[in-house]
Design brief:
The chain has helices at residues 31-37, 49-57, 68-85, 88-96, 155-168, 205-211, 218-221; strands spanning 118-122, 133-140, 178-181, 194-201. It is an alpha+beta fold and 222 residues long. The chain is globular and about 55 Å long.
Amino acid sequence: MADADIPFWCYNIPKEQWPAECPDFLVDLSERDQKLVGRRDQDYERLTWPEVRKVIEDNQLDRFVRVPSDLRRYLEYNAKLKKEHGSVMDYVVKERLQWTGLEAHSAVSFSDPATSDIKILYNDWPYGIDERIVHLVVWTKFELPDDPQTKELTAAMRQEIDDYVDRTFCQAVPKENVIWFKNWKALKSIHSVEHFHVMLFDPEPAFVEGVTHGDVPLSRKT
């Protein structure tokens, strides 16, 4: 069967498992996501570290996409979480962050944060990037304010995050192998809990295990 005749929801799964109809978790996908899911994994090219840095530096964050089969797994798992937990956010707060409340204990954010106000975890469903890149998420109970004019982080908060990233990651990973970004609001999958992303190129596994307290991303568990 020619690729053009294969429904997008049948890509990257064995033919004997092809569903006759589109699964519920893939119904109502955007045209962009349909094209991504309906693409062979072997035709996907992962972004290199220089490409990842350029995407972030140019603020072209919508270029970050998942490997087609990973995107399918991500969408299926999110649908399962919503059914079982009410929302992805509820699951993240209760199960991944294990926070019983979102009230910050520190009034001065990254300058002097309470340990309980910040948690570093793996991105559960990383993008299609060089597999040597470790993608982490820094979750905070305190606000990361945006400038109302630019809709991006305030200059003061950007500096605070820069300093925090330097202290937390650049002591163990060369600075040129560390980069961070905060997603545009339109690209966030979790809206109600503040967070930003950190990517590390080829860090020592022991360092990552220490800074995440032994966290394992969901994509490795399912």
